[in-house]
Amino acid sequence: MKRVLPPLNALRAFEAAGRLGSFKEAAAELHVTHGAVSQHVRLLEGWLGASLFERHNRRVELTSAAKAYLDEIGPLFDKLSQATARYGIPEPVARTLSVNAPATFTLRWLVARLAKFRAEHPDVEVRVDTSNGPLESLKESYDIIIRGGPDTFYGYSMRPFLSEERLPVCSPALLQRVPLRAPDDLQQHTLLHTSSLPRLWPDWLASAQISALRPAATLTFDHFYLTLQAAIDGIGIAMGPTALVSDDLASGRLVTPFAGPRLPSRSYCTYVADEKPGDEMIGLFRSWLEREGMGS
């Protein structure tokens, strides 16, 4: 007799959401996104031809039919779990991928995208340490190191994944207070600097042929991400790396008052030690970074 079985991943999502009474908690238990649980539940509802949950503002409730269904399939999941444990089949162990990347890049670009990688590869745990130091100064061996480039380091393979340029950025509220119609208008504004990148503004002003310009004020920070946050807060104008402010430009938190000139900048690259050849998880993460970089 042919078995009539619903999509098993959808059934698993329904069982977890029904048992826990929450799509969010089900997503956490299954190591997937909230949207993935919702999609699986909709798939099962379409397959059964019936609604399983009543959706409220911040909670869900099982329909009466779904509760009866859950009462029958829930014990089956328990038996499956017990049988698996009894026969000594180990649960899959998540692989930890260690990444070392600059702090500003991590805060402004990587963190916002890591959830997408986790949704695609729930069996891979990612641990990120931040550092700007050279590869040879790192005291720990990392699976992937992200730095500027392209550079050549003995014992490492290199692949670029994200390019950028630099140009002035500021909050739209600042422009409403003090408009910027031409680069000369920068003399009415505060220019935001980063102590580790002292040449950004002088080089841009020289490229714009206004090297002698004197701004109303200057403000210097020791970390680049603080400089960018000050620009978002409307304190002044920063030299923004296009890759790291792309999300802010898309959301309207920052704007570019001038189309150019644009200063060329080094690309972001992944560096992997030669003793890790053919590592599947490293290859997955590198390829994912390259796809994300193309979309930025």
Automatic annotation (TrEMBL):
The record's listing under InterPro entries reads: LysR-type_TF_proteobact-type, LysR_HTH_N, LysR_subst-bd, WH-like_DNA-bd_sf, WH_DNA-bd_sf
Q: What biological-process terms (Gene Ontology) are attached? A: DNA-templated transcription
Q: Looking at the keywords, is Transcription present?
A: yes
Record key words, sorted: DNA-binding, Transcription, Transcription regulation
Q: Which Gene3D superfamilies has this protein been placed in? A: Periplasmic binding protein-like II (3.40.190.10), Winged helix-like DNA-binding domain superfamily/Winged helix DNA-binding domain (1.10.10.10)
Q: What's an example of a GO molecular-function annotation for this chain?
A: sequence-specific DNA binding
Q: In its keyword annotation, does this UniProt entry include Repeat? A: no
Occurrences of domain HTH lysR-type (ranges) = 6-63
Record PANTHER family: HTH-TYPE TRANSCRIPTIONAL REGULATOR, HTH-TYPE TRANSCRIPTIONAL REGULATOR TRPI
Q: Which family does the UniProt entry place this protein in?
A: Belongs to the LysR transcriptional regulatory family.
In Swiss-Prot or TrEMBL terms, this protein is called Transcriptional regulator GcvA
Q: Which gene encodes it?
A: gcvA
